[in-house]
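User: Can you predict the 3D structure for this chain?
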Amino acid sequence: MIVLGIDTATPGLGVALAGPDGLLVELSANVGLRHAQGLLPAVERALADAELGVEHVEAVAVTIGPGSFTSVRIGLNTAKGLCMAREIPLIGISTLAAAAGRIPFADFPVVPWLDAKRREVYAGVYDTSTGFPKSIEADSVIAPAEWLEQHDGPAVFLGDGAQVYRDEIIARLGDAARFAPEWIPAASAGVVAALGRQMALAGETLDVDAAAPVYLRRPDAKTSAERRRLTSDERRKMDA
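Assistant: Here is the predicted structure, written as structure tokens:
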């Protein structure tokens, strides 16, 4: 089975293909907010590099959140369109699971923290001792101090949230806190493709029509009238 992996949940855009012999190709770039322009060309490039056509793709795996509200939708909608057109399975992957999968066979829990702004992080806790990430605590959006009050013991942190709040983590956990290198991206389309292939073979797929992003918190979309009623401080907090 050939699985296409797509990750657009963070400023990174990633596309990968995984098959029976492992990862065939992975492309990644930091595109900021330009996922819509780059995604389909990246898919075409990955297929060309692997010397495959779209007809060879037997399932699509995609990060479904948490992450940027707009870019998560772009990735999921593109994946759904490909699956509908070819009548193939869709697999949804947590962005935090895709991040944790960057640290396989860890001796300690892997804790991805993505900066959710407003003094919060998207946080997960994963066991990667088998090589694949297994969630041992539900993904959440939470204040760093609150998360740290609820946890102790050694852990490996990664993601931009771990870098933003590194001093707070160290102050609470001391030497028990390990940090992945900053150059390791928050998520990986290669992990998405490989994990998606494993899940597809196990029948862990989504209903293509009903599949929806997992934001963990509601978007802050407000009407112009609602924004006018906000104080200047409230507007700054909302836009931060």
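The radius of gyration is 18 Å. Residues 141 and 217 are 7 Å apart (CA to CA).
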